[in-house]
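Dear colleagues,

As part of the handover before I leave the project, I'm documenting each prediction I ran so the next person doesn't have to rerun anything. This entry is a single chain, and its sequence is reproduced below.
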Amino acid sequence: MGAPAHGSDLRTDRPERSRRALVAGSVGNFIEWYEFGVYGYFATVIAARFFTPEGGSEAEALVRTYASFALAFFFRPVGAALFGRLGDRVGRRPVLIMVIVLMTAATTLIGVLPTYDTAGALAPWLLTFLRVLQGLSAGGEFGGAVSVMTEFAPPGRRGLYGSWQSFTVALGLLGGAGVAALLATVLTEGQLGDWGWRLPFLLTLPMGLGALWLRLRLDETPSFESLREESRPERPPGREVAKAIALGAGRVMGWAAAGYTFLVVLPSYLQSSLNATFQQALVATVLANLGFAVTIIPAGVLSDRIGRRPVMLTGALLATVLAVPLLNLLQNTGTSNAVKGGAVFVAGAVVGLMAGPGPAMLSEMFPTSVRYTGLGLAYALSNAVFSGCAGLIITETIKRTGSVDIPAYYAAVTCGVSVFALLTLRKEPVRQGS
């Protein structure tokens, strides 16, 4: 699909509205990724509390934990389709209010769930149900948030505004890692396993209430208002939209897979495969997310100047080439901690080159009339397959093959596929009106 149409390039001339949209769009994304990060960081603890009946092994419990993790991602496309259609019909603002309420409620309830010891086989089912609700709300979050941020963006700054969506991913993951690291430091292992793991989920309640307040003050986007004024707004053919969704999913495949491999799955991998401590794994994760955060906004700004294609292609190519060498540095017992820290920092930085321009790139693939649905589905489908399954695929494949190089192969192959999809992007810089 080509350039946005039907008023999708109208921009507000009130900077305060743009800034308000940027904050309101970003805050829900922060909460979403904070929670998904916390779940990943505490995967081994959650496995022991919810998925280890008597006689079950730790490896089996971890696989079941990641299966629940993946299930939430597979409900993201459902949420993207459901909330996306609503967002394209009734507006971005009311739907974004709905999804933040759902996400906050589901995440907070995880913090009060009974464990397997208390509720038996009901416990993992309750956890899985709440993960499904989180998946639905997360599916509706991305399309709406990116639509709001890019439709309010001043001319020539969609890359910058869209990059804040990815930046809040880094902030959310760092926030989750910081809370997990703090709890691991101040609590004993027994306290952490008994009740300490609940605290990060309960913290979502005040954050969610703050996000709700911001979204209640949000204006509808000028692009959607313009579309609503049309008596019979034209919608592109369904086949054309489906092709754009598939292409968009391919373009962000590497971002999804490498991002989750390096930024979320890494802690459990380091503990289960390389015998790292919980604290060491969290430090590595913080460094990877710092590298991720450092490059996101500069990459978005650069894409406004030279185009989305060269920036995202650079990130995908570097991830393809560097995945195995970087992982080998972590595996080498003779490698200093400083070098290992640098390796995970670089891994995160490379993902940031794809994540910075990614939201704007997806937004520009769809006209206003189907943007919420289209970009939300492209992102959700890619994440369902290549992010949500990352932990499950990597853990199960390592278990079956004994190869500790699996994470690197996984990231390299998916980023390699993204290279070919990104080659279809136009070469010239994205200009006003495009």
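Residues 2-13 have pLDDT under 50 and may be disordered. The two ends are 12 Å apart (CA to CA).

All the best with the project,
I.
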